[in-house]
Amino acid sequence: QLQLVESGGGLVQPGGSLRLSCVTQQYTLGYYAIGWFRQAPGKEREGVAGISSTDGSTYYSDSVKGRFTVSRDDAKNAAYLQMSSLIPDDTAVYYCAADLWGDGQLREKEYDYWGQGTQVTVSS
Fold this sequence. Notes:
With about 120 residues, the protein is mostly beta strands. The chain contains no helices and 11 strands. Strands 2, 4, 5, 6, 9, 10 and 11 form a 7-stranded mixed β-sheet that branches. Strands 1-3-8-7 form a 4-stranded antiparallel β-sheet, with no helix packed on it. A hairpin with a 6-residue loop joins strand 4 (about 30-40) and strand 5. It is globular, with a radius of gyration of 13 Å.
């Protein structure tokens, strides 16, 4: 069973930046597409960024396009979400998820493995 661990969340002021990490100690993360999802209080979980397992294609929701960047370092079994120009509406629990041989698009049901989530709070 693939286990994912997120880190890097915290409290940041509007306009600030954070980098989230998603790592696994098992298997080879390179076989998996990685998606980043978030859930704000009282809202449904939404996909924000994804990266393919094969050709490195990336996908973003309209709400984060131009501000967030998803990347991966398969040698380190890690994936990252660089978040910039953060706004209060970005406040949520952020989850990374893995989809074996996936294309990285943000179809939540295709992701079989999920991390425990990390809280991001954007507030002054």
